């Protein structure tokens, strides 16, 4: 997990991608890599997810690729086989965590309360997704969760935008944030790679002042 943590910390923002046409990931991956953000979390919110992960791994072999919204063992195995570097889940499911540990892929499970944090710690996990970030209390809740649990690091996701991401990243032990604004689904579907490139550059500049 230390390698993933280092990459997350260096990137500061992870594009969270919902994609319906797997082929679109090839030009999108090129846009992200060429504009300073060689990372993607491809969510299992469409049937195209597995093919998109595979195509992105083939076209961008050095990219940090996460599989997001993974809800069960089968999805975790399929994501790893397709080339995902790590797994992200919206909540804490012990069965999914155990499956990832058994097949040897890092998982960043979702938490938003102390009980979920303690369940994650019980299974040896210290890098956690804080989700849904803004709806769960935002920055104040992040600080409240980090205070008693000095071993954990968080990746807030959900409601993160250009107006608040720097405030999250300013909190010690927030590794990175997940965001969707630089990979807007409508822009992907429209094939507006120029605008997506602009948004990506802006995101990189925003978190690396």
UniProtKB/TrEMBL annotation:
CDD domains: KDPG_aldolase
GO terms for MF: 2-dehydro-3-deoxy-phosphogluconate aldolase activity
Keywords: Carbohydrate metabolism, Lyase, Schiff base
SUPFAM superfamilies the UniProt entry points to: Aldolase (SSF51569)
Top-level lineage group: Bacteria
Top-level enzyme category: lyase
E.C. code: 4.1.2.14
Reactions that this protein is recorded to catalyse: 2-dehydro-3-deoxy-6-phospho-D-gluconate = D-glyceraldehyde 3-phosphate + pyruvate
One family name in Pfam for this protein: Aldolase
Pathway noted in the entry: Carbohydrate acid metabolism; 2-dehydro-3-deoxy-D-gluconate degradation; D-glyceraldehyde 3-phosphate and pyruvate from 2-dehydro-3-deoxy-D-gluconate: step 2/2
Record family assignment: Belongs to the KHG/KDPG aldolase family.
Quaternary state and interactors: Homotrimer.
Xref: PANTHER family: 2-DEHYDRO-3-DEOXY-6-PHOSPHOGALACTONATE ALDOLASE-RELATED, 2-KETO-3-DEOXY-6-PHOSPHOGLUCONATE ALDOLASE
Xref: NCBIfam families: eda, PRK05718.1
Stated name of the protein: 2-dehydro-3-deoxy-phosphogluconate aldolase
Native organism: Vibrio aestuarianus
């Amino acid at each position: 997990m230390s390698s993933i943590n280092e990459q997350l910390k260096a990137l500061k923002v992870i594009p969270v991608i919902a994609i319906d046409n797997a082929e679109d990931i090839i030009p999108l991956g090129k846009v992200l890599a060429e504009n300073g953000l060689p990372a993607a979390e491809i969510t299992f919110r469409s049937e195209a997810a597995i093919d998109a992960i595979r195509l992105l791994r083939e076209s961008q072999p050095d990219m940090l690729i996460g599989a997001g919204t993974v809800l069960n063992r089968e999805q975790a195995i399929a994501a790893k086989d397709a080339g995902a570097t790590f797994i992200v889940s919206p909540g804490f499911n012990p069965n999914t965590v155990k499956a990832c540990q058994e097949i040897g892929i890092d998982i960043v499970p979702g938490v938003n309360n102390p009980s979920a944090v303690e369940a994650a710690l019980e299974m040896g996990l210290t890098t956690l997704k804080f989700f849904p970030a803004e709806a769960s209390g935002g920055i104040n809740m992040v600080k409240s969760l980090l205070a008693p649990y000095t071993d954990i690091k968080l990746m807030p996701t959900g409601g993160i935008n250009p107006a608040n991401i720097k405030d999250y990243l300013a909190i010690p032990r927030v590794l990175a944030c997940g965001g969707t604004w630089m990979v807007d689904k409508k822009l992907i579907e429209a094939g507006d790679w120029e605008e997506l490139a602009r948004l990506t550059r802006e995101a990189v500049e925003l978190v690396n002042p």
